[in-house]
Amino acid sequence: MTLSTSIAGLEIDDSIQLEQQGSILTVWLNRPESRNAMSLKMVTAIQQVFSQIADDVSIRAVIFRGQGGHFCAGGDIKDMAGLRVEVANSGSLQAYVDFNRRFGAMIEQVDQAAQIVVAVLEGAVLGGGFGLACVSDIAISRDTAQFGLPETGLGILPAQIAPFVVKRIGLTQARRLALLGLRFDGKTALDLGVVHQVASNETELEQQLEQTIQQIKRAAPLASRATKALLHRTLNEPLDQLLDDAAQQFADAVAGAEGQEGTMAFIQKRNPSWFD
Q1: What would the mean pLDDT of 228-247 be, rounded to a whole number?
Q2: Residues 125/71, Cβ–Cβ less than 8 Å
Q3: CB neighbourhood size of 275 (10 A)
Q4: What InterPro entries does UniProt report for this protein, alphabetically (predicted)?
Q5: In angstroms, rounded to a whole number, what is the distance separating the alpha carbons of residues 75 and 36?
Q6: What pTM was computed for the model?
Q7: What is the C-alpha to C-alpha distance for residues 158 and 9, in angstroms, rounded to an integer?
Q8: What is the spatial distance between Cα 36 and Cα 130, in angstroms, rounded to a whole number?
Q9: Would you say 62 and 53 are in contact if contact means Cβ atoms under 8 Å apart?
Q10: Close Cβ partners of 176 (under 8 Å, ≥ 6 residues apart)
Q11: Listed residue (132, 198, 204) closest to 168, CA to CA
Q12: Mean pLDDT, all residues of the chain
């Protein structure tokens, strides 16, 4: 496994590490001493990566993982403590507002990314880590992972996470989890719809991830991007308008290079050219 802190010439903070294998980019959260608590530097580094690859069709999936046996234990309390001085000196709460909103912008950027986003969840999946899991397209968890929204127990709100948790599991369950600050394991996360698969050991976890990667490679890159964008639009646009536009996209896809190659590959009983 070769890890780096650069991609396409972009140097990033070492709070994350990158591993690229062909069309698959793995983003390792790299603060194991704090269970990968999400600092402002980590938030910025993730944003830089997703901005850099936004139009890069050669990268078809981004996998989030955590170093040291944990995914992410939430926001970095040390960052919050550091802001107290700035707030005290300025007499304004704007530093807190900007800090919190920056995290929401990162979560939204990951949510809207054209690439397929996979979260591999182990150990602590709390607060901001929980929010990041909720914007993944595919979430694979160890049965022993510990999920939760502990914010209210700290006297704060899951302010930027809440909308994405509600989208993931619905308002009824989100209320219970957020208001009670409940902790639960991977099996319960599966029942709630937070994750899609649960592994009982490390070997099974890696097998499930590899199977997911192979399925991603079977999907045509442009069709995959267009499908993800279409699914996002279903939550916000009038149905007639959406279906009219989807019909045009379908026609374009059928007549396009991917549609023709996919059809021929099916007829000839072979893998399509994009399956690498």
Answers
A1: 96
A2: yes
A3: 12
A4: ClpP/crotonase-like_dom_sf, Enoyl-CoA_hydra/iso, Enoyl-CoA_hydra_C, Enoyl-CoA_Hydratase/Isomerase
A5: 9
A6: 0.94
A7: 35
A8: 12
A9: yes
A10: 182
A11: 132
A12: 95
Q: First vs last Cα of the chain: how many Å apart?
A: 19
Tell me which residue has tokens 């140097």.
Answer: 11
Residue 183 CB coordination number (10 Å): 14
State which amino acid sits at residue 82.
G
Q: Which residue has the tokens 């308002």?
A: 171
Q: What is the 3-state secondary structure (H, E, C) of 97-115?
A: HHHHHHHHHHHHHHHCCCC
Q: What is the 3-state secondary structure (H, E, C) of 262-275?
A: HHHHHHCCCCCCCC
> By C-alpha distance, which of 14, 182, 155 is closest to 80?
155
Q: Are 172 and 178 in contact (CB under 8 A)?
A: no
DSSP annotation of 68: G
**Tokens standing for residue 140:** 């694979």
Q: Which residue has the tokens 């995914």?
A: 71
Q: Confidence class of residue 1 from pLDDT cuts 50, 70 and 90? A: low
